[in-house]
Amino acid sequence: MGFRKKTNKNPPVLSHEFIIQNHADIVSCVAMVFLLGLMFEVGLGLLRRNALCVSLSEGLSEESVVNHFHHGLKDLATVFFYMLVAIIIHAIIQEYVLDKINRKMHFSKTKHSKFNESGQLSAFYLFSFGWGTSILMSENFLSNPVSLWDGYPHTLMPFQMKFYFISQMGYWLHALPEIYFQKTKKEDIPRQLVYISLYLVHIAGAYILNLNRLALVLLVLHCFVELLFHVSRLVYFSNEKRQTGFSIWAVLFVLGRLLTLSLSVLTVGFGLSNADQQGLDLANGNFNVLIVRITVLATICVTQAFMMWKFINFQLRRWREQAQVQPVKPKKPQAPKTKSKKDKANGVNGVSSNGADSPRAKKEKSS
């Protein structure tokens, strides 16, 4: 599996440049250790004990038994493994897709980094949106919104939903070492750390607090809006005159924030507050108490306000750039003033039109 970039220099082994150039190969070897462990009975036994599975077979035939899963501390090992997988996939997309496009387009350094970022995130958001939508359709969460809070705590999840959240956490964890692998500029590091932390806090928080149904709906909505933005930015890099996608994204972004707040208040503020099971019960995964509900709503509201603030700054900066690009209309040259008949006859300042002194000027000179 060769993911190394072709270079003329061979950096020293275990140096920074060596690790950056060969990080995908190194991570692949670590992932192989996990896969080799699954080939033995001991590894398979550990995997079975790690997946806390419950079969829901009441009123169902043996062929239609549905397995549901809990979450637990052993999920950390699974998240770590899929973080390694995400690093490998990231390297494949970067070398075999994005780098080839960059060579053809000859982007500047600024556009080069932004193009790589949008290319990677477009692939991730497209995958997340399609996968999340299929789960919503199969679980009928869209046709029955009451199920977002009905029966809380939702400690049992179908395999696809549990795998979805583990993959999300694995992807955003992989973004942390990618800051080093991609040689991110120092001025861009704080911005990336902020949005990576926001993703991890919200996804892991919903996963632990058993708010996975609400989180799934909001993630699908958010992935669709972000997918449109990054696709629009890729189109803009290919042709700067194509900016229609940004206008559509701006409208959907505001609607997405309003819908996110509405669903959150409806589910947490009204649905859970009127649920049958109230109180804090860590053994059963019940966190339906007032302080937790207020914390969840406050976190969501602050995050949405922060995103709107960034959105407004982005729009203002974009409008300023458009105003600077617009050409300034040149002023029309003023027509020269016409000389009066007296000046034409006597000449201006004692000089006639043919360059000789006028009779009046000669008289003044002689005197």
TrEMBL record:
A Pfam family that this protein carries is TRAM_LAG1_CLN8
Question: Quick check: keyword Transport in the entry?
Answer: yes
Check the record and name the InterPro entries matching this protein: TLC-dom, Translocation_assoc_membrane
- Topology within the bilayer: Multi-pass membrane protein
**Record field: transmembrane:** 26-47, 79-98, 119-143, 163-181, 193-209, 215-236, 248-270, 290-312
Where does the record place Basic residues bias?
A: 329-342
Example GO biological process: SRP-dependent cotranslational protein targeting to membrane, translocation
In what residue span(s) does the TLC domain sit? 113-322
Region annotation Disordered: where it falls in the sequence:
323-367
Where found in the cell? Answer: Endoplasmic reticulum membrane
**What keywords appear on the UniProt entry?**
Endoplasmic reticulum, Membrane, Protein transport, Translocation, Transmembrane, Transmembrane helix, Transport
Q: Cite a GO CC annotation.
A: endoplasmic reticulum membrane
> Which family would the database say this protein is a member of?
Belongs to the TRAM family.
Task: Return the protein name.
Answer: Translocating chain-associated membrane protein
> What organism does the record attribute this protein to?
Oncorhynchus tshawytscha
Source taxonomy lineage? Eukaryota, Metazoa, Chordata, Craniata, Vertebrata
